[in-house]
Design goal:
Chain lengths: 196, 185
Amino acid sequence: MKWVNAILAKFNWFGLAGGATTLLVIAVSLIYPWWQLTVGDDLMTINASPVNTNFGFLDTSFTIPFIWALNIVSILSLLASGIAMLIYSIIPRKSYSKHLLGFGYKKPLYTVLFFIIGLVVTTIILQAVLSINVPLMGSTTSTLPIPFVSGVTLSFLLTAGFQWSFWLAVVAAALCIAARLYHRKVAPTPSATTAT
Amino acid sequence: MDKIRLLLTLITIAIVVVPIVGMLLAYQGNLLGLFVPPEITETADALFGGGGDNGSGLEPPTMVGEPEYDEATGTFSATFQFKNSFPVNITIKSLTGNIECVEHRFTLGNASLSKPVSIDAGETGTLTIVGAWTNAAKSHFETGHKNEEFVDVVLVDFAVDISGIQIALDPSQMEQTMQVPNPAY
């Protein structure tokens, strides 16, 4: 069993899994949104993820250019993170490996955190400015403010929820953090090695 | 080692800056377009900027002909026309309202859509509303309108469900009186 331990000690397996999962998250998120909001009976849908955010009105689908630019930032960031994590995981003891790890492991976590913060802030702004109560998860009936449509009240069912691709991104972020923690075991610092 | 650190920092900056600056340059002549694509403007115009009577793209249904009363079943029916001013095909799933006597503001019964109706974008569909007078309404017809062949009524608390969106019209938008046959005449 020595050779098993030798292989286990040679690579950072959490890093390999984290890097591969991060790249998988990019591919999956291009098709499956992290969070989806449906208005009425699929009259309007919002498919949101840091990688691909688009809006649908029945057969029409469109994106907001600024959000699209942010999506490109996220794609490149996650891509760089995934590649860095994979390279680091294969050679975790090289002198520059810790830099690769530092570069790669935070990005999936930050992407997930910024996405959640962005969603929460957007729903708070919609509630404050337009009085539209958008749920993060579950369903609610919202009423359009009267000034928009005089004499007519519009009420619509809003159904929202996080999709499986979001939880895959959470797993990727967790694996990358685990890789950072496991790094101490794979490549102990010189002082720690001396102490033991 | 420092070179790698510097390279990774530069990559991080480039990843963030290049797409955003590139998009800003692409939309420098139309910064609003960066946040509001033409599809949003077109949809908003179609929904709220149309030529509806109430300033929106929505128009209340208009009644066609006279309501009919079936003595045998004690039910009445009325036909309305509704123009689909939305840029998409819609399905009117339900339509409900209460009928009040105009003179006494007495609730005579409620009305609802006989069956869901699908209307293509820009087209006008025919809706048949059916309802029944309550026992109190029948008494009211006898006591309050005994010698009248037709009674003026109004549809109030009007609400319609279009593809999952509920539209409720204020009484001011739906003060459309109509005459119904008096079952007690």
